[in-house]
Amino acid sequence: MKINVIYILTISVFLSMVFLIDSNKFDKLLLDWMNQLTPSSLQEPMSYLTKLGSGEVMIILTLVLMGFLYFKREKLYALMLGVIVFGGLFLNLGLKLLFQRERPGEVRYLEVFGQSFELASYSFPSGHTMRTFLLFAFIIYISYLFITKRAIRLISYAIAVFCISVVALSRMILEAHYPSDIIAAISISILWFIICIRVVPGLVRKYSRTQAPS
Questions:
Q1: pLDDT, mean of each 10-residue run, the chain (214 residues)
Q2: Which Pfam families does the record cross-reference, listed alphabetically (predicted)?
């Protein structure tokens, strides 16, 4: 029942943000409020912190964590992480191409490991936010499962929440995204994350049974 409520809430929030794409009143109100509260001195540090959510950093961190889990014989969780993050990358790209919302600033193009592609990087939903949320939500998840010391677990939670929050805020402070892009990214990421952690283990067990010798 609780999971169904989360499904309904996340889908409802995402669809609400979709309806706001053609109207910038909501985004303008929040951006004006943020500009009033945010000192100009934050621009430079945020320009560095936002790189945490870049595709290059997320891919490297994901592969490192997958390798660590595989080395620790946690192959299911390594696979789950790959599906969550890399599946999320394709989901984000598909949604961007579906809605094709222009960014609040100048037109940007997709760039991976220094290579620029002649494909516009659309605004909705925020890729930085989705990537960061999915990776660090998984870190919270495995911390809950495997870290027994409460203090270390709480530190892990705090670092993960900080990383998600600072990347999401940086995208708005740097005017790379509208607030609705960020809210949509978080809502669809929650939905995708829950689907993955519920579906992937079942598919793996089903595949293992079909491959087992009779």
A1: 82 90 80 78 82 88 94 91 94 90 67 53 88 96 92 94 93 86 95 92 68 54
A2: PAP2
